[in-house]
Design goal:
32% strand, 84 residues, five-stranded antiparallel β-sheet, SH3 type barrels, single chain, globular, alpha+beta
Length: 84
């Protein structure tokens, strides 16, 4: 299993957001701070326990709302291609 750190692309495995894709923007108090660029911006990230996340990729881009949305869009496309 890949280590979750800033810039990781993750999928939620538990909670009301099960299956959602996020980019990790940081950590605080043992929790990951997550953004999707739409509902959760880089400036106001969601806090989630890392044991409820699975790493599905990495990004080295500067984390802005636009780049987060772009990265998530690319990951969703690649996952759709794999599933079909």
């Amino acid at each position: 299993m890949a280590e979750i750190r800033c810039g990781s692309v993750v999928r939620s495995t538990a909670g009301h957001d099960l299956g959602e894709i996020y980019v990790v923007t940081g950590s605080a108090g043992g929790r990951c701070l997550l953004a999707d660029g739409v509902r959760r911006s880089v400036e106001s990230p969601k806090s989630k326990n890392p044991k409820h996340l699975v790493c599905i990729g990495e990004t080295s881009e500067v984390l802005t709302n636009e780049t987060v949305k772009s990265v998530i869009r690319k990951v969703r496309r690649s996952l759709a291609d794999v599933e079909s």
